[in-house]
């Protein structure tokens, strides 16, 4: 089946890699240096997400020169122009690329890919800055805000994170960060947020300072999506980790200063065909509560790494073969099982973090996308974890309690029908009876600007739709409603209403009990809000 518009929008986001040198390959049609540079830029922005920086193929087909030269310029032009039912977008007929650009790209693809620069220890050291040394930081909060209920909110296109007081909804500070921060993770003590920009810049924000500010920063690569802190007892705030898309590696750092300590490449063999992959990107990383370990999804190889940080110089890594295209995921309610999407494989991989093994590979339909997922006690099947999907309306519930409900453990127990495909995140809270499901990438505004909410004690009743974007009362724009996130008490749920950079956006706070509007946070500086991370819920893995 062809990919939906939502799936396409999700994959096609730009990747800001620059600096590859022009390569001239025998047998390929001529192009000028300017054309090569322009094509390289377009390739990174539009194509690399699916076909890979080195064009070895990922969710898209491989585009190595043995293949592209055989197809030739005219064939490639037609393919880029019209797309294909297998999921290739119609870049020409949709008006996104001009004839001239398509002609350039078709020739560019017949030359070997320019290799983007590496980023090793010298580059990391060079970019590493400690603004406030640990011994100069305050010992207790220098303000009266409730640190535990603070939210870190990504202001994507502003290159900032807003630190918002969950009690008063006041923006406490706008903190300059990397570009388009993907996620923020609270440290185990709750005093820091670590953020990762798409440009692979990590910022450590100290919430005790008045106002909260960046105390250390480092750039760990050219492009990245994940950051995490050590969670195991006795290692609170000691080790930080970030994973990169390019170069394909992860780096272990000092948790207080971000001093880089060890870089480990993820280049290696794929789990299925056991072929070498030159650019397996690091997707989600979670800190284990079972052992002093980080659990790392390596996307293209489909390997899940359990990296033990007890002795970084003699690093122990358990490699669990799961399924290709590992992406996002979160813990079950017990904190023993890591539930993670192998999205283009249409599987949820379940890792037993205690016994360090693959517990199950659960089949689900068409691109599961859980975020961190949602845990609740199902009236019939006991504890379950759920995910929504990009490719259809399914909300798939998987049993997670092998002790008391062994017959349902790691089986799909129920599939709810939501508003439609194009869903990215679902969320609930132990104090809540609601299960929220967004659909920001659904092609119809009626769905992308609203959210569905189920009563978990009466799932058969179906969902109610809340007009979140309308409640925000904004000017024109896409106003996609994205990523539900609870406050610490679990009695409010926050949504981003995400519009374009020049348009008005907002954060909408809903009363979880009454499902009524409680508060709207908006204004000139609330630019393109996306991810929101509550300090307490994020560090305790409550979702
Ligand atoms: Fe995300 C989580 C990668 C597009 C907002 N996103 C993640 C994670 C990964 C990832 C690997 C898990 C991190 C972790 O837990 O350690 N995201 C990618 C992509 O590769 C992709 C598909 C395309 C891209 O080029 O980035 C992509 N993501 C998006 C978006 O378009 C979103 C909506 C806005 C944006 O910033 O680009 C977006 N992603 C998010 C958010 C989370 C996330 C808000 C964390 C959700 C949570 O509740 O934990």
From TrEMBL:
Keywords: Electron transport, Heme, Iron, Metal-binding, Oxidoreductase, Periplasm, Signal, Transport
GO molecular function, one term: nitrite reductase (NO-forming) activity
Catalytic activity, as annotated: A + NH4(+) + H2O = hydroxylamine + AH2 + H(+); nitric oxide + Fe(III)-[cytochrome c] + H2O = Fe(II)-[cytochrome c] + nitrite + 2 H(+)
Enzyme class: oxidoreductase
Assembly and binders: Homodimer.
TM spans (from-to): none
First and last residues shown, out of full length: 119 to 661 of 661
Name used for this protein in its record: Nitrite reductase
Cytochrome c domain: residues covered: 34-113
Gene Ontology CC annotation, any one: periplasmic space
Subcellular location: Periplasm
Organism from which the protein derives: Wenzhouxiangella sediminis
Documented EC number(s): 1.7.2.1, 1.7.99.1
Cofactor section: heme; heme c
